[in-house]
Structures are given as structure tokens and as C-alpha cells.
Design goal:
It comes from Streptomyces thermocoprophilus. By secondary structure, this protein is α/β, with parallel strands linked by helices. About 25% of the residues lie in helices and about 25% in strands. The chain has seven helices and 14 strands. It has a six-stranded mixed beta sheet. It has a six-stranded mixed beta sheet with strand order 6-7-8-9-12-13, covered by helices on one side. The longest helix is centred in the last third of the chain and has 15 residues.
């Protein structure tokens, strides 16, 4: 299975509309070179451009949905189109990822569960999703997560329990915490014996330099490919059988102890 991670640069110097069309063109360029294409988190606005969340929020089947659905169909790829600020018909905003099939049909939507910012930013502007989401592809099952989710291993255990073998993480991760990005991506791969495809943004927006360094890790924790800090398309070939063979050869997941009794106080 061939995968392309599009580490697009986000900057205030480019309009949302222009970046949307440029991202679609980059997706189309993967035709014949990839089976799966991944975009980062909130690449239309920037993950730290909080003032744009409300003004650029769109319905699920909004402009980004339309452009990305067509791009997926044109390229004939499975497309994780990153995430957009979604405005629910009832009013709340969500950080929502979209996955399209090679015919341009919506295969899944995932509303980010863990919102970053503590008592500000995304944590107060966006509502939290509640559902784990997996997507069955012909040769693997994807588990979806977004940025800050990477810090919460129980989410990924839930995805693995639901059948995930390839964990997709779209992010707008800041440069100042890049070491955590690489460490956590490898940890999630090792502990879940799954591929991790983590796609971030490049550039600087809202005064926050982005980490870039999108990364692909195999089920043994080996880094198969890693981007640099600038805009880049990271391409890698995956063996869809490797999660299963890894779990057979080193069956650590079978030794999980669940329902442990908490300590007495």
C-alpha cells in the first residue's frame, strides 16, 4: 500500500480559498503514485488561528468537502482530507476530519475528541467529539485521531480494539514541542503494534512556527520516513500484513490486564 502525506504550509499570506485549491492540486498529483493520501489538521485556517475558526467554519458538506471529494475521485485515492472547522446545524463548532473513498464518497467523519488549549483557544471554541472512528480499506483498517489526541493512549487502544491496524494522525503541531511529536508517534506505534502515519503542517501562522516533520512509523517503532520542516510530500510504501505478523510474533496485546482494582485510599 502506497501512502503520501502532504505536509502543506499554512500562512496568512495565502487565502483559505487559494490554499484549498492548491491542496486539491497536490492531491491530484498523487494519482498513480499513492493508494492513500493524508492532509494535516485545520490546514484551511491554521490550527492556532483561533479568530478564523468561526468566520471560516463550514457545514460538513461545505466547500472543503466538495473540493476534496472531487480531488479524491480525480486521483482515484483514499483521501484523509485533514480536518476543517465544522459548524453543526445546531450551532456548535467541531474540529472534524473527513475521509473520502477513491470514488469521492464520504467514508467517514471524525470529530476531534481531545481539544487543545486548556482554558483557551480550541478548548473553549470547539466542542468535543464523542465517537471513535475507524475506516475499512481493502487491505487495512484505519483508526482516526487528530493532533492533541496523540497524547492520550487510551484513545488508540480503543481504535485497536475496534480493528485498527493503521493509525492516521492529522496535526497542526508547534515546532517548540517537536520532540514530543516524534516520541509520541513512535510510542503509539510500538504499544499498539500498528502503523502510525502522522501528518503535520509546515510554515508559520498566528505567530506559531509549525513543526513539520510528518512521520511514518512501522509496528515495531521503526521510522520508515520523516519529512523536514518545510512543505513536502512524504511518500512511503507499507506492508499491510505487518501489523498482524508483528502481533503474532510478539503478542503483547494479549497480555493486557483490564479492569484492575484501583488502590485503596
Amino acid at each position: 500500500m502506497r501512502a503520501s502525506l502532504i505536509q502543506i504550509a499554512v500562512s496568512e499570506d495565502e487565502s483559505v480559498e487559494a490554499r484549498r485549491e492548491r491542496a486539491a492540486a497536490l492531491v491530484r498529483e498523487q494519482a498513480g503514485a499513492a493508494d492513500l493520501v493524508v492532509l494535516p489538521e485545520l490546514w484551511t485556517t491554521g490550527a492556532f488561528a483561533y479568530e478564523l475558526f468561526g468566520t471560516e467554519a463550514e457545514p460538513l458538506e461545505g466547500p472543503t468537502y466538495e473540493v476534496m471529494a472531487k480531488a479524491a475521485a480525480d486521483a482515484g485515492v483514499w483521501l484523509h482530507a485533514g480536518s476543517v472547522p465544522e459548524r453543526d446545524p445546531e450551532g456548535p463548532l467541531y474540529n472534524t476530519s473527513l475521509v473520502f473513498s477513491p470514488t469521492g464518497e464520504l467514508a467517514a467523519a471524525y470529530r476531534k475528541i481531545h481539544r487543545f488549549g486548556f482554558d483557551q483557544g480550541e478548548a473553549v471554541l470547539m466542542s468535543a467529539g464523542r465517537d471513535l472512528v475507524t475506516v475499512r480499506l481493502p487491505r487495512t483498517t484505519l483508526g482516526l485521531a487528530t493532533c492533541y489526541d496523540l497524547r492520550f493512549p487510551e484513545l488508540f487502544r480503543g481504535l485497536v480494539d475496534a480493528g485498527a491496524e493503521t493509525l492516521l494522525i492529522s496535526a497542526g503541531w508547534p515546532e517548540r514541542r517537536r520532540a514530543h511529536w516524534t516520541l509520541l508517534a513512535r510510542a503509539r506505534a510500538v504499544e499498539n503494534q500498528a502503523y502510525v502515519l502522522a501528518c503535520g503542517t509546515a510554515g508559520t501562522h498566528a505567530g506559531v512556527p509549525q513543526a513539520g516533520h510528518s512521520i511514518v512509523v512501522d509496528p515495531w517503532g521503526e521510522v520508515l520516513a520523516e519529512a523536514g520542516p518545510d512543505e513536502e510530500v512524504l511518500r512511503v510504501t507499507l506492508d499491510p500484513a505487518k501489523p498482524a505478523t508483528t502481533r503474532e510474533q510478539f503478542p503483547a496485546l494479549k497480555d493486557r490486564m483490564l479492569g484492575l482494582t484501583p488502590p485503596r485510599r
